[in-house]
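Technical appendix A lists one of the benchmark inputs used to test multi-chain prediction within the project. The record comprises two sequence entries:
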Amino acid sequence: MKVGIVGYGNLGRGVEAAVQLAGDMELAAVFTRRDPAAVKIATDAPVLPMDKLDEMAKDLDVLILCGGSATDLPEMTPQLAAKCNVVDSFDTHANIPQHLAAVDAAAKAAGTVGIISVGWDPGLFSVARLYANAALPTGNDYTFWGRGVSQGHSDAIRRIDGVADARQYTVPVKAAVDSVRNGENPELTTRDKHTRECFVVAEEGADKAAIEEAIVTMPNYFADYDTTVTFITQEEMDRDHTGLPHGGSVLRSGVTGMDGEYLDTIEFTLNLESNPFFTGSVLTAVARAAVRLSAEGVTGGRTIFDIPPCYLAETPREELIAHML
Amino acid sequence: MKVGIVGYGNLGRGVEAAVQLAGDMELAAVFTRRDPAAVKIATDAPVLPMDKLDEMAKDLDVLILCGGSATDLPEMTPQLAAKCNVVDSFDTHANIPQHLAAVDAAAKAAGTVGIISVGWDPGLFSVARLYANAALPTGNDYTFWGRGVSQGHSDAIRRIDGVADARQYTVPVKAAVDSVRNGENPELTTRDKHTRECFVVAEEGADKAAIEEAIVTMPNYFADYDTTVTFITQEEMDRDHTGLPHGGSVLRSGVTGMDGEYLDTIEFTLNLESNPFFTGSVLTAVARAAVRLSAEGVTGGRTIFDIPPCYLAETPREELIAHML
């Protein structure tokens, strides 16, 4: 399978590594809106400007789109689905139906497959929720994120006056997770579920008390959470906080039995040293499914809910059934 | 959807409860090889002899087969797939390919769908292994079972001279599970992974030391494990050990990155108060998928690896995508 990567940030790097590892895939090119000469990639695939995509699309089996959900993907995914099979990681949960409709229309018209919202949330977490709900229709869902870096929250801190650099970790509250694991079906507020840990490098002479106050009272981002702020040096930041770890848990607690007399819990947990490299790996597995579905004549917009799991693995179905079932 | 249950032991009871809960299903009948008059069920569905199946099959959407894997299902599933869509819980891992081939041939010839090896292992555990392998192609798989009742091991103890009753719990070794969770990729022997706890009621005057020796040295069942034997009274057995709890964890530890520099772990854990009621609930969700696939014109043998996850839930696809993705 000939794969193209569109956009080369952290996620693009993650896809590149995963494609290189796949025995059935070849990275045909990386497409960028930047000056291709300025984009150094990890492998020796060509780096090309976006306008090369038009002529190359017909020779590619799938494009993996590594742009942002806010402005890139809503435009880019339907546009490119008109040229080639595509997979994206669109993660604005509230706008998924609308994005899917746009991709579905473009893909159906072009005879391609477009799979959206791939990664771990949305993605593997969503699938875990779905299996758990199918197995335990009567119950409650819980999702905990972290411990992991939230780039949106880190950026929000960096925009505060006097902040030179910042990293924010979302941390699940252990007592809340344990209560769900114990089947206690707790009612949990936002504050009960997660805390936020902020590591901040202040500019020379900045008012640290004012920075801390600005962080902990920030609406939407921090005001509803127990937030801690720790000032560190740029050296400490560079030494201890360059990684992008993440993860979390999806739990469902529910009942079976004629009178709901048996209590069960289902848990799916990820513990990731690199969020973008793992997300890239999931995108790559789903890109394989897009190519296989397309080869079967499927067209239109899809999500991970629509994909038979055996389409994701490089290992052939018969071998999976013999050794993994 | 009109559902028939074939076989009414613990698993049949579990399916009955799950079908009753499903808003899109109706239990049409329970079929039994016993005298129907002697089989009391929890709902008011008719209990019928097996030979009624021939005339009724055409009015049923799916049969959920609740027989045993050793002798019932290898015969029964292909036989009944020739009459109706079927789902079974065939769990002899080594014979799955051969069983699937037999069901596939019968189902293709009859134009039905036959989904085999449904439950949690094989079943949800298998699917967890598959997603984890697709997301992390380079890594190691681990499966831990328990704490839970193994009926096969309990039966093996009951066959020992002087044993009136017995219950065996399989227990994962916490240190081994934690080592995997920590990404240490341990090499684990059978003894490292699980211990076996046996609760035994001895007959009046039986030689307890001889019973204990017979248990802990029993090949295949106990010799390779650290096994504890606790003698209790029948009253204690009836009070504390009537349940059939089970569960366990599937873990995968693997790497991403250009040089495998990032370590990730994926964990799927079940904690079940009733193994047969949960298994019955999973069978019921998969029976729904069988009916939906059949309605689309699919025929032949399938496994849970072949089923798009959204086919399992009563909730329509659009709603799942809007609210669960």
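The first strand of chain A starts at residue 2 and ends at 6. Chain A touches chain B through 70 residues (CB under 8 Å). Comparable benchmark entries are summarised in Table A2.
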